[in-house]
Amino acid sequence: MNICSMPYFLCFVQDRLVSKKSLGVFVKDLHFGTIPVRLFQPKAASSKPRRGIIFFHGGGAVLGNLDSYHNLCTFLARESDSVLLSVGYRKLPYHTHPHLFYDCVNASIHFLKSLNAYGVDPSRLVICGESIGAAAAAAVTQTLVGRADLPKIRAQVLVYPVLQTFYFQLPSHLQNANVPFLTKDFMMTCICKYLNIDPSWKEAMLTGACMPPSAWRKYEKWLSPDNIPKMFRSEYQQPQSPAPFNEAAYLETKHTMNADISPLLADDKIIAQVPEAFLVTLQWDIIRDDGLLYKKRLENQGVPVTWYHVADGFHGCFILFDKKFFSFPCSLSIVNAIVSYIKGL
Q1: Residue 13's pLDDT is what?
Q2: CATH code at 300?
Q3: pTM
């Protein structure tokens, strides 16, 4: 009947399934300018400033909000004994790129300039995100490189990040194209809607026809499946090259190569300056290989990486850690691994 679009429907359903719990933390809703944020502070007394975590939720720029990630943020703040800021960035169906990125950057800068007010140790700052939120975390971390007026980020936590949006012929794209909860069709729908790309260009994007030969020559060294461990390349036959170049498709999609959208493509001089990373990848995730390629790029530039691969993980499992009958062992294992890593900083 087409009464409403998919993004509107999904947001409607999500908002009615949330049950918030705030055990062990003080919670305060704030606005940094026009950006809604939620602050989580452990109730337990502390003799010194705490770690600070800036958190960007996932959801493909369609799903996710402060409420749906409330319990996860409560757990992370309480168990890691950290002050956590969750950012309610603008997203679909009302807002497209670059609003999400700008909101994450501006909220981060505001928080970093106000650490004393929140009892945060400026030497122990973490930027954390899931899925598209992890893309924002990587992009914000890169953007803040060289900002002498701000405290340095100590670490970045990237939970199954989507780190590029123009090359879709990696092993995980082919192996996991129909694995819930992020199928190829849903992924491309989210990307096109978020980046204001007409859906008619999906096929050109999937086959690489929107990539000029010069761009492929530049980025091939970073996108090559040879950078992915052999264990993930079983039965994978790499295409000889992208499909014949389609200039019209390129003109409509060329912004997908910008580093604020595809942090995987940032210059080496930027990559070399970002902080150490905790990187989560999932076996049954269509964007698994984005994380593996970024791991390789970071390591090549001397950036320490702690890699946590989940053999039974699938996209979206992170937020299910407390959903009782809908929870999975992989969900809690990821959350606990992140807490353990952050506590070690």
Answers
A1: 47
A2: 3.40.50.1820
A3: 0.94
